[in-house]
């Protein structure tokens, strides 16, 4: 039984909640292991079309890596703690869409986990930052790579080199989050978005995510060719035939995931 990552289901959406509210949901080794196990379980579950990751309580999404684990730790022990698979990479390559639902503090490894998700929805009261510099550290969960891709190099430099926190409105303005909603509506609005996504063919969602993720690593010419191949791959599915026939027949599509 997982103690620090709770799994709930609402329709075709799985909600994974990091549950260490007394430590502002800081990521320790147990959370990482249990998050990987929870993700593996929902990956296998055909009834799950999309995943929402969030933190328990109103005060924090995740306030970063558990700083208590850093004290006195050797580089080799830290390297072991950062061994693959890592939650950040699993979320980014997960075959189903992953949405971060962010309230309160979203700092350090919490911000990095949010950045590795496919879409970020934040409460208007959420606070973001990469404060590692204040600990004599740098971001280690992909922050120096994913942050500049989302917000540009200058804004990433500003956030990482100062460790300053920014509010949700500014995070939206610079592209760190995709949607900001009133805090009281965060759950409803995020689950509505996730449910709408999860209602589509899981095969098509997987291919769409793969094509979009390829844009992070491929030069545009290669990305366009890769997209063409993935587009043509969709022609092998029953769901493409169903979607097209449903449109032509003026009826809703009934996806089978085949
Ligand atoms: N690691 C371990 N424990 C953490 C934590 C973290 N990243 N963030 C918060 N906590 C713990 C606090 O130590 C405290 O525990 P305690 O009650 O046993 O003393 C508890 O969570 C509540 O946090 P507290 O600091 O009392 O809340 P606050 O409202 O005064 O401040 C923050 C909130 C987020 C500003 C502050 O907790 C903070 O700066 N956290 C560290 C953020 C960080 O540097 N993250 C990057 C890590 S690489």
Quickly list its features.
about 260 residues; alpha/beta; 2-enoyl-CoA Hydratase, Chain A, domain 1; Lyase 2-enoyl-coa Hydratase, Chain  A, domain 2; 2 domains; 10 strands; about 45% helix; globular; binds coenzyme A
What's the helix and strand layout?
Blueprint: E1 5-10, E2 13-18, H1 29-44, E3 50-55, E4 60-62, H2 75-81, H3 87-93, E5 98-102, E6 105-107, H4 109-116, E7 119-123, E8 127-129, H5 143-151, H6 153-162, E9 165-167, H7 168-174, E10 179-181, H8 186-198, H9 202-214, H10 220-233, H11 238-248
Parallel strand pairs: 2-3, 3-5, 4-6, 5-7, 6-8, 7-10
Antiparallel strand pairs: 1-2, 8-9
Helix pairs in contact: 3-4, 4-5, 5-6, 9-10
Task: Describe this structure as you would to a colleague.
By secondary structure, this protein is of the alpha/beta class. It has 2 domains: 5-198, 2-enoyl-CoA Hydratase, Chain A, domain 1, CATH 3.90.226.10; 202-248, Lyase 2-enoyl-coa Hydratase, Chain  A, domain 2 (Orthogonal Bundle), CATH 1.10.12. The chain is 45% helix and 17% strand. Helix 3 (87-93) packs parallel to helix 4 (109-116), helix 4 (109-116) packs across helix 5 and helix 5 (143-151) packs across helix 6. The longest helix has 16 residues, at 29-44.
């Amino acid at each position: 039984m997982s103690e620090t990552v709770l799994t709930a289901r609402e329709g075709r959406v799985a909600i994974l909640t990091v549950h260490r509210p007394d430590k502002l949901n800081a990521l320790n080794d147990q959370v990482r292991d249990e998050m990987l196990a929870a993700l593996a379980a929902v990956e296998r579950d055909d009834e799950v079309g999309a995943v929402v990751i969030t933190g328990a309580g109103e005060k924090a999404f995740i306030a970063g890596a558990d700083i208590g684990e850093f004290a006195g730790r050797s580089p080799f022990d830290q390297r072991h703690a950062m061994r693959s698979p890592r939650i950040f990479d699993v979320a980014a390559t997960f075959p189903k869409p992953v949405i971060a639902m962010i309230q309160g503090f979203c700092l350090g490894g919490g911000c990095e986990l949010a950045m590795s998700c496919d879409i970020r929805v934040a409460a208007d009261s959420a606070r973001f930052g990469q404060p590692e510099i204040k600990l004599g550290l740098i971001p280690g969960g992909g922050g120096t790579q994913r942050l500049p891709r989302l917000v540009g190099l200058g804004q990433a430099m500003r956030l990482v080199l100062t460790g300053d926190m920014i509010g949700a409105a500014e995070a939206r303005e610079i592209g760190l989050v995709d949607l900001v909603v009133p805090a009281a509506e965060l759950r409803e609005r995020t689950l509505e978005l996730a449910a709408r996504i999860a209602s589509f063919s899981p095969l098509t969602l997987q291919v769409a995510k793969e094509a979009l993720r390829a844009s992070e690593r491929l030069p545009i010419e290669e990305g366009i060719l890769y997209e063409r191949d993935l587009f043509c791959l969709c022609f092998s599915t029953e769901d493409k035939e169903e979607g097209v026939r449903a449109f032509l027949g003026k009826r809703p599509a009934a996806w089978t995931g085949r």
